[in-house]
Structures are given as C-alpha cells and as structure tokens.
Amino acid sequence: MGAPCGPVLVVAEELDPATDLIVQALADRSIAVLRFDLTAFPQHLALSAEHGSDRPGWHGFLDAGSRMARLEEVRAVYYARPGLPRVSRQIPDAYREWAGVQALVGVVQVLSSLPVQWMHHPDVHRAAAHKPAQLVAATGVGLTVPRTLVTNRVDEARRWARSVGGPLVCKPLTGGALPQTEGRPVMLPTRRIEAGDLDEGVDLTAHLFQEWIPKACEVRLTVVGDVMFPVAIHAGSEEATVDWRADYNALEYEPTTIPGPVAEAVRRFMAHYRLAYGAFDFAVTPDGQWVFFECNPAGQWQFIAAATNLPIAEAHADLLQGALTA
Q1: Reduced to 3 states, what is the DSSP secondary structure of residue 211?
Q2: At CA 259, angle to CA 125 and CA 310, rounded to 5?
Q3: What span, in angstroms and rounded, lies between the C-alpha atoms of 5 and 24?
Q4: Rounded mean pLDDT, 199-227
Q5: CB count, 10 Å around CB of 24?
Q6: pLDDT per position as a tens digit, 86-120
Q7: Which CATH code, of 3.40.50, 3.30.1490, 1.10.10, 3.30.30, is assigned to 147-212?
Q8: In what order do the strands lie in the sheet with 227-235?
Q9: Are strands 117-119 and 76-80 parallel, antiparallel or unpaired?
C-alpha cells in the first residue's frame, strides 16, 4: 500500500455531490487531498512519472498548479466518472483524437499502476460492470437470481416466456442514456411485460428478459470495504414498484438488516471481483427471500445517505484513509 501519511487522489467531475461529501470527510480527518478531473489533463495538470530497475514503482508528481502530489507518497485513489482529457486546439484536427487517447492512457495507466488502495479501479470496474457475468458470479457465490434470457430472436423469447409461465421484465443490458430529448438524456427503466407483448422488435437488437419477482420491497445494499449499509426501498407507485428509479418521488427509505447467508454471499461476490465498493440491488419477496438483480461497482449512494443519515461518506473516508479493509 501507499505511504501511510500520503495524500488521497480524488479523480472525479468537478460537480459531483458524492465526491464532495467524501472530500469533506477526508478534510475533517486532516488528510491531504489532490482533487482533479481528467478534463484538466494535459492542459492544466502536469504529470511526470519515472520508472527504472533501480527502484520499484512509479516516481514523480502530479501538479495541478495550486497543489501537487508525489506519486510515491499517494496512499489511495478515488476514481469516479471523470471526464475525458481535453487537448489543445493547437493540435491539428487530424491528430486531436490520437492526442486525446495518448493523454487518457498516459495518466490513467500510470495511476492504475500505483500499488495503493483504489476505489473504482478502472480495470476492476470494467470487469465487474457486465450484467450477464454478474449473474453467473452471483449464482456461484450462493445468491438467488431471476431466471434470465438474452436474445435477439422473438421465437426464442416466446418459447422462454412460455417456460416461465408468468409476467416478465425487460431491462437494458448496460447503463447509459438515449440521445437527449428536450435537452435531457432519456433513461430506459425496467418494464414489466407479458408474453403476448413480445413482437418482432426483439429481432432488432439484444434484449435481456427476466422473470417478474414479486416484491415486499427492494433493498439497495451499499458496501464499502467490509461495511454494509442495507436500506429497504418502499415503492408508492406502480412505476416505482417495477423500477424504483422511474419515480423517486414515490419512494420511502428505511435502514434494514441483511440475513447472514446473504451477507456472506455478498462478501464472496466482492472478493470474486476484487471490489472495494458495490451498490447492490435486491428484491425481497413476500416470503422474505432476497433475490439479486445487479451490482453497480460505482453506483450512486448520496441519495441513500441523505434519506437515512447513514455514514456512507465516512466509510469511504475510512477505506481511503486505510482504516477499513477491502
């Protein structure tokens, strides 16, 4: 790990409420922080990194102008949805994309090589973000998952729907938004459907279908290192019952407890992907069974903290400080 008294690098968008809370929690502990967005590189952020056979690791500095950090002294890196490097307009158009890629790879891969505590390491996040692989991993560690089909053939979808024999849901295979409508990105929520709703549109691209899981409530389980914050989400509208993200105004939040076997399976899932953080979504059925939907390895948590006063920012600071294990 990094030097015990070194700074924490915080790589995130300038306007990010969750990051603000973490930086404040670190400042309250008098831990030095160098915060920057990758958009500052290479025009407003300087990197100099040296490596040689005479000493291990990278040595050098990151200089943001008002503050500098020595690479060999960094204790941890918090990396959450930064922007992309912005190269100078002096670079000819034919070379600007190439220069942007060079900038991105240069700074991110050097940082990724630092042997320190990471939260949302780019390589770990990339591997852990795939929904089909998550379902396999979740089953392997002992979690219950919905029956699932990925297909681009309507005849296969209809055959599978008959085998399920009940309501279905259709959800995106990956995150992200559709092009903006009236200046705002359009998010695709999970939709509840019946077998009779399946039509030839299925053939046009890959679709992810799952059996409908009856819900007493849903649970957002925020895991920071080895600390778990389970919060029940109670839906007050039909839209929120299908996908709570579709109607935030209809939600009520309540800290809850997690069954021991589920907690142990979640720990095995975290270890499988080498995650230091995870935002897990579960349904709790009327008979009390916890059913795993997905884990966002860099999911939002500040809305949960605001609604429940749970010390999630402080847990992040503990981990980045080195007071928690991952």
Answers
A1: strand
A2: 60
A3: 18
A4: 97
A5: 13
A6: 999 999 999 999 999 999 999 999 999 999 999 98
A7: 3.30.1490
A8: 251-255, 227-235, 217-224, 277-284, 290-296
A9: parallel
